[in-house]
Write a structure and sequence with these properties.
GO terms for molecular function: sulfotransferase activity. InterPro entries: P-loop_NTPase, Sulfotransferase. Keywords: Transferase. It is built from 10 helices and 4 strands; from the N terminus they run βααβαβααααβααα. It is globular and about 45 Å long. The termini are far apart. The protein is 40% helix and 9% strand. It has 197 residues and is an alpha/beta fold. The chain has a 4-stranded parallel beta sheet, with helices on one face.
């Protein structure tokens, strides 16, 4: 089964860490940036019959991580040249709450980094296209379960790379911010059963 694996890397869901593990290194195809519909991208790269897997994360934690990732990024960052336009916009917001409030009106929402996670997981008819969907909050367990499913060894450590912040995201949200992100990412909140906790 490992000869036809597709890893769908949703931004800020431990993908950079997972990329350094044998399970993702065994994947012959990967999707990270894409435009349009995920099922069209899967067809385009010839991976319709592949075993597809990916991970999701609490939408509030992910959004805070995205903000910090781009806010702290400078010209020396390896991905700066691809993201300079995003960094320029995010750095206008010294206050995370201001970013939350203005986000729905920003063009950033159309960038793949900020897509709702559901856009990576479900097709246009609402059918889940991933054969395995893990949760970052239970990463070690999910990786072990996925390894067992695929018949791979799970005796490895998951490195922690590309960490944008160690701060507890819950400390940075106001009641209004919580509601705004819940509304904007409502599909993720409902489909993946997340709460602000």
């Amino acid at each position: 089964m490992t000869d036809k694996l597709l890893f769908i890397h949703i931004p800020k869901t431990a993908g950079s860490s997972l990329n350094r593990t044998p399970i993702v290194q065994a994947a012959s195809k990967k999707i990270h940036p894409f435009n349009g519909l995920i099922e069209d991208k899967i067809t385009e790269i010839g991976a319709v019959e592949y075993f597809k897997f990916g991970f999701v994360r609490n939408p509030w934690a992910r959004f805070f991580s995205l903000y910090n990732y781009f806010y702290k990024m400078d010209e020396n960052h390896i991905h700066y040249k691809y993201n300079a336009h995003i960094v320029k916009v995010v750095k206008k917001f010294d206050c995370f709450s201001d970013f939350c409030r203005d986000f729905p009106s920003l063009r950033l929402r159309n960038n793949f980094h900020f897509y709702p996670q559901s856009r990576y997981v479900f097709d246009r008819k609402g059918k889940q296209i991933l054969d395995y969907l893990g949760h970052v909050e239970n990463l070690a367990y999910c990786v072990q379960e996925l390894c067992e499913t695929l018949g791979l060894k799970s005796d490895f450590q998951i490195p922690h790379v590309n960490k944008s912040t160690s701060d507890d995201y819950r400390l940075f949200y106001t009641a209004e911010d919580i509601k705004l992100i819940e509304e904007y990412f409502s599909e993720d909140v409902l489909r993946f059963n997340y709460r602000f906790e």
